[in-house]
Structures are given as structure tokens and as C-alpha cells.
Amino acid sequence: MKTYSLIVQYDGTDYAGFQIQPGLPTIQGELEAALERLAPNFIRIAGAGRTDAGVHSEGQTVSFKDDQLTVPVERLPYALNALLPKDIRVIESRLESKDFHARISAREKTYRYQIYEGEFPNVFYQRYAYWIRQPLNWDAISECSRLFVGRLDFAAFASSGSSAKTTVRTMHQVMVDASSPLKMIRFTADGFLYNMVRNLVGTLVDVGLGKLSLDEVQAIMESGDRRLASATIAPQGLYLESVNYS
After folding, report:
1. Torsion of the alpha carbons at 24, 27, 29 and 31, rounded to the nearest 10
2. Domains of the chain (ranges plus CATH)?
3. Which residues lie closer than 8 Å to 221 by C-beta, 6 or more apart?
4. Catalytic: which of 11, 14, 52, 139?
5. What's the predicted TM-score (pTM) here?
6. In angstroms, rounded to a whole number, what is the distance separating the alpha carbons of residues 7 and 34?
């Protein structure tokens, strides 16, 4: 049995998320439907990250096992892209070791959140960034982001519905780039809880608006109480940027 991996890009706007849901369009559903047209058997795939509705990807990794697929591995992106909707693209394919799994084998993931500051929404960013009219204090946001680096308990930033056994994660880096109207906050960690990035960004935006101080954010984190943190920010600014297996 061969183990395959695919690197997939997608615009998540018109999908109910990555994970398959009966009766709803999903990234997993589209990929499996395309694979079904290339193989005589059904192929179930696994994704590195179960991105939510409206969330995008530049580097989602999926894996699957199969021994009946006749398309050469180097030709898989071409064959799949001919069958997939235009907002989903396979950009790389590989054969992996037999124990490789897109989610379980992942060592590090990077998510990016984009925020557009301006008097009016930008029509070209509406699907791909969160718009805010009021200028944010990006120095305060950058300073606050340092509170999230390290091996920490992120319970206060995990939405209900997660099946994670622990809310402790190691955040390797948080980078803030506010050098252009399209601002970016990038998070790299060994794993993420349900809605964790969107909850962190919602809190950082409130810091940038002067609604929360650094001391208050520290207290929220130490409390472990999701009710004290800010609301979950909109999904369209979020991207699964890359997954590292080294």
C-alpha cells in the first residue's frame, strides 16, 4: 500500500470548511470526489488542519493510502486539477513513508491572519482579509503578541467543541507585519486548538483598539476562561500557510 501526500491551495469562501459534512460543499469532499474519478476504489484523505468555513490555505497537506491508483505520482496535480473546482488546486504530490499521516506527523504549522485598514472596504480584499476602519495601535499589538510565545495553556482562546486532550501548546513565534495597509499576523506553533488563531487575533484587535491592556490579556490567559477573551474574529482573513514535517 502506497502512502501519498498532496499540497493543496484553496479559497475557502464557498466551502463549509475542510472536513467533509453531509450535504455541504467541503474541501475534503471535492478532493475525494476527484480522486474517485482517478481510481477504481474510494479513497479517504486526511488533512493536516481542519480549517473552518471561509478559511483559506496556501499549504494544506493531505495524505492517503492506496494501491490501485494508476496515475504516476508526479502527474497527480495535473490530473486532479483538471477535475477540481478552480478555487482548489493541488500544487505538489509525493510518495511518503508508510507511517506518514498529514495530521499526526506534522511537527509545526503556520497560520496567517490578514487585516485591511482603510476608510472603505477594498473590493479585492473582501474575501481574503478582515476590514477595519479605525486605525489600530500596532505597537501595542506587537508587544502583546509576545505574551503568546512559549509553552502555554491556551484554554482561554479555545472555542467549545474541541476534542483536544490538552489545551497546552508550544507557540514558537508570532510575527506582526504592519508595514502596508494589508496587515499580517503570523502564528507558528506545534499545534492549534479549535478557533485558537481567530480568538487570539480578536483579542489582539481589542488591544489595538485600546479596549484591553497587556495586563488584562495576561490575566485572561492565566484564567483559562474563554468567556473573558474577545469574540472570535471573522474567518476570511485566516490562511493555513504551511505545515512542517521535518
Report:
1. 160
2. 2-96 (3.30.70.580), 108-244 (3.30.70.660)
3. 147, 148, 152, 153, 154, 156, 157
4. 52
5. 0.94
6. 15
Specify the residue for cell string 507585519.
177
Give the cell for residue 145.
503578541
The strand pairing partners of 93, in sequence order, are: 6
Cα 12 vs. chain centroid, distance in angstroms?
10
Helix (H, G, I), strand (E, B) or coil at 153: strand
Residuewise pLDDT in 10s, the chain (246 residues): 999 999 999 999 999 999 999 999 999 999 999 999 999 999 999 999 999 999 999 999 999 999 999 999 999 999 999 999 999 999 999 999 999 999 999 999 999 999 999 999 999 999 999 999 999 999 999 999 999 999 999 999 998 766 778 999 999 999 999 998 899 999 999 999 999 999 999 999 999 999 999 999 999 999 999 999 999 999 999 999 999 998
- β-partners of residue 56 are 239
Tell me the three cell numbers of residue 160: 467549545
145 Cβ partners below 8 Å, 6+ apart? 174, 176, 185, 204
Q: What are the C-alpha distances in Å from 20 to residues 54, 96, 233?
A: 14, 24, 23
52 flagged as catalytic: yes
